[in-house]
Amino acid sequence: MYSEVRLSGAATLWRSAHSAGRAVIPADGCVDLILRDGRVDVAGPSTRWLETAPDGTDGSTGVRLAPGHAAHVLRIDLATIADQLVPLDDLAAAGHARRLRETMLRAADRSGRKDAVSRIAALGDESPRWIHGARRSAYDAVSARDAAASLQISERTFRRRMLATFGYGYAALVRLERARRAQRVLRSGSSIADAAAAAGFADQPHLSREFQRLVGRSPAQFAS
């Protein structure tokens, strides 16, 4: 059983229980803090599909941080953990890791959940404002040069900020946004050809290749 609730523009609380098998999760560029059997792991920014681990004895509780917002919460360079699952204690300074772990434990406890998750959401919401501009540019598929110009910074600075704050480059963010848009179109019942055109893919084979890498399924399998 899986459920989630969006806490803010930056954070989503999710809960999974009684899942003994593994599930395919499409790449979304997000970072998840995952509490399972008393241990907190960090799923780094995903740029390819992945498989989830089975739930712990008491289920799993997670906070998903939107692209670009986890660096401020974890206080690390996200490029160092892209597409990896890493123990929180290996990433953050001891005191900060302890506070985050305590917050996640409260998030798993219904009585302290609201306060705990609001703290994490608030940290994510404090991320630099340029992140929103970068995501808008990626959604519109503008060039990296134009995206940097809109933020009034050089391409070199933009590239450095993207890697540190998102964990991947601007081109990867464009691909993630395009795949996300295609998934929404397919969920609406549109044809694969229409989804490819609406999302900005060159053609259906292009959509299929990207889905295999980012979603872990073919467009037909995703739509079925």
Task: Tell me the layout of helices and strands.
Layout: E1 2-6, E2 11-16, E3 24-25, E4 31-36, E5 39-43, E6 50-51, E7 60-65, H1 70-74, E8 85-87, H2 94-108, H3 113-125, H4 130-139, H5 144-150, H6 155-165, H7 170-187, H8 192-199, H9 204-214, H10 219-223
Antiparallel strand pairs: 1-2, 2-7, 3-6, 4-5, 4-7, 5-8
Helix pairs in contact: 2-3, 4-5, 4-7, 7-8, 7-9
Description of the structure:
By secondary structure, the protein is α+β, with helices and mostly antiparallel strands. The protein contains 10 helices and 8 strands. The chain folds into 3 domains: 2-125, no CATH class; 130-170; 179-223, no CATH class. The chain has helices at 70-74, 94-108, 113-125, 130-139, 144-150, 155-165, 170-187, 192-199, 204-214, 219-223; strands spanning 2-6, 11-16, 24-25, 31-36, 39-43, 50-51, 60-65, 85-87. The strands form 2 sheets. A 6-stranded antiparallel beta sheet has the order 1-2-7-4-5-8. Helix 4 packs across helix 7 (170-187) and helix 7 crosses helix 9 (204-214). The model has no long low-confidence stretch (mean pLDDT 90).
Report the order of strands and helices: EEEEEEEHEHHHHHHHHH
| Nearest-integer average pLDDT | 90
Question: Helical percent range?
Answer: 40-55%
- Order of adjacent strands in the largest pleated sheet: 1-2-7-4-5-8
Give the termini separation: 21 Å
Q: Characterize the largest beta sheet: strand count, sense, and whether it forms a barrel.
A: 6 strands, antiparallel
> What percent strand?
15-25%
